[in-house]
Protein: Transducin/WD40 repeat-like superfamily protein
Organism: Gossypium laxum
Amino acid sequence: MERFENDDLQYVVDDYYDVNDFNNDGAVVEPEPQRDAAGLESFDSDFEDDIESVMSKPKTDTSAEEARNGKDIQGIPWERLNFTRERYRQTRVREYKNYENLYGSREEMEKECLQVEKGKAFYDFQFNTRLVKSTIVHFQLRNLLWATSKHDVYLMENYSVMHWSSLLHKGEEVLNVAKPIVPNLKHPGLLSQQLSRVQISTMVVKENLMVAGGFQGELICKYLNQSGAAFCTKLTTDDNAITNAVDVYNNPSGAMRVMAANNDAKIRIFDAETFASINRYSVVCSF
């Protein structure tokens, strides 16, 4: 399974500010991003050398007032570097080859895709914090950040599901998936089992319920207002078992359901109260 963080600049910023995560125990080590051009690799190396040479102050947040006064919202001191932001972006866009799995030319895709008008304000910048880092271990599966309100964000931080409050500027651990996870809910016929050291590949937080899927076909369900996990199991023992997507939804009758889709071409439906298996569908793909 190929895993990499496809964002060179994030590495530069993290190295600069010496980011200390919520909990560094059991951290997933991610290989260096793939680069397609030697020129960009040299450019990034020079950039890293420059940014390391100007680092002296500790990491801080960037406020809306500071951004209005010209401070970079990521906190990168471009004015003290040999490279401008514009030059770095131009070189990266020109030389970096991103992963693509779409067939057809870019021109054809641009005709079908809605174009975003430049110069429009979709959001107002409030603040940027570098105290929080979302961990992503797969280059495609990136549904690992959920906002349940204007001020509440749930994210993966290494082996921990974290809750971050933008009002309190404070984070707390919701569930540690590196430690043994013993399901709380037990009743006859429930296919639940203990798990440990799960690498989370996908996540959803809705209706007081957090559901996460893992690289080895795991499924973990936890009520936010209760300690521990209510239900957890391995959905499949297939060699290609990764849980690609999970969701929480209400069926037409109003009952809440949990849905999981795996690389074994199966979609599984569970009741969100009892976590009993309700249905399973096989998916046939043709290209």
